[in-house]
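Technical appendix A lists one of the benchmark inputs used to test multi-chain prediction within the project. The record comprises two sequence entries:
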Amino acid sequence: MPTQKAKAAVPENRENKGKGKAYGLWRDGWARLKENRAAMAGLMMVAVIALAAVFAPYITKYDPTEQLIWTRGAKAQLVPPGRDHFFGTDIYGRDMYSRVVYGARVSLQIGIASTLISVIIGVTLGALAGYYGGLADDIISWLINVVFAFPFLLFVLALVAYLPPGLPLMYAAIGMVNWAGVARIVRGQVLSVREREYVEAAMVAGGRDARIIVKHILPNILAPVIVQATLGMGSIIMLESSLSFLGFGIQPPTPSWGYDIDQGRQYLLAGAWWWSAFPGLAIMALVLGFNLLGDGLRDALDPRQSGGEGR
Amino acid sequence: MFTYILRRLMAALPVIVGAIAVVFILTSVVPGDPAQLMVGQRGDPATIQKLREDLGLNRPLWQQFVDFFKGVMTLDLGRSYRSKMPVTQAIAERLPVTARLALGSMALAVVSGVTLGMLAALKQNSVLDYGSMITALIGISAPSFWVGSMLIFLFCVQLRWVPGTGTGDGSWIYMLLPVLTLGMRPAALIARLTRCGMLEVLGQDFIRTARAKGLAERAVIIGHALKNAMLPVVTVIGTSMAEMLGGAVVVERLFSLPGVGRLGVEAILNRDFPLIRGQVLFLALVFVVINLLVDLSYPLFDPRIRYGGTWRRE
């Protein structure tokens, strides 16, 4: 029966999870990750796009905001993909390949910054709730449930609408909504780790709470946080592109994938499919990369959790 | 069973109160003066003062909150600043389009997701399995508005099978592409979860028992395996519903559908604060109710809950 195979793989992973040796989890995790072809493909996709973003000026011929219609006239408009413009040009004669490459900067920047903010808030609140329990837990759990009650995009949209435009405020707005997923996982993990003997020993030995949390508990719950953060990168990048698509994202002319899809779709009737198509493919590749990597990390670092859904 | 329902209802109450409070805080304590924002930089002080009075902004904060809370309880969310229409009425007018879109997409997602996931699990490691799971991964990773744009290009511009965007004469054909666009992501999520759940269930003892006692394979798959694999799927239907209410914002814009989502975007563009506030609150409440319904449906799938046992949701 083919289904037996999948079942057998789980206990095997569990045995491999080194408990005694220092850094055993990370070394084993990396070994498992390396064997996971899908995860490695995901890592490659993320790495290639990240490198492209960093070295954007060296791998592009045109400035992403340079409007070639001023120098070359109307024949630079909506040029189909070809040798000079790999991804074609838009109505202003801007090179779409340059815009897609530079667009990665905005997406990754927002993804990383917002993820950092949500991890900081989420780990702090989740650890407090899990460690102290009682009223602190009640209040924080309630807050988590309340945040989860709002549709992600709409909540951020409303936040962005009330805040003056600007990148840092956008990180903050996304982070303020996205922390709840991290907090929920950290809380659950801390609850279970807190009962372990070594934590009890640290308590009996008279360690301060803050020290116990930082030194003894947090290192042991790092793996699920990393998994959640990686999967969260995908949804944040998707969210940023949705905001840009709706016109609430980065202000033009800064290249942003979501904004270009929105602009380009208005020229679909004219047959200019490339304007929308390539930024969309870029979003898909980056989000897919993070999803594959996140799934792989979950299987490699945290076999018990595999099969769940990240937000 | 009864205590389970009661407990779920009681658990939803603080979340609802919290959602009301968050919406209030979000729209009241933010830096900047809403009246100023609504009028714009060049508004004269008298107009702004008048507007502050109209909106009740010159009253103490706690009193504003009490009024707001009372308003929510009596379904009075104030009036749109722009159209002067009561917010509840403005939402109610736009609701049918969004409801049709969301329900249609969900129906599509459940039928296609469960079927694909089930087939993939039964034929594990086959071409069908890999094919549908790769499709599902792409479905989760592709932005819906981009897929929608490409669908428009393919079916409206190139093939001319579908007339175009908007609601047209209200016929179903205009809803086809929006439903496809919005349903893609939940379909992919459901397919993955169904496959995962089925694989887990199929290896368990009661499946062997069911087969051993001579049940037809189809009865084993549908009656025993699928039913037990459905719990996580039901949960994800709830969360997807919420995501779709958000996603409707994007899809409605893409296909020029006059739904609640577009109302929200218009409200934000117009800085129509009472309308934004009502809109966000409305969607949060809808989500809480959907999640409550999902929770209440668990006993249908898990008899342990029906007979008063405890069962963890996470």
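Residues 1-22, 305-311 of chain A have pLDDT under 50 and may be disordered. Chain A is about 70% helix and 0% strand. Comparable benchmark entries are summarised in Table A2.
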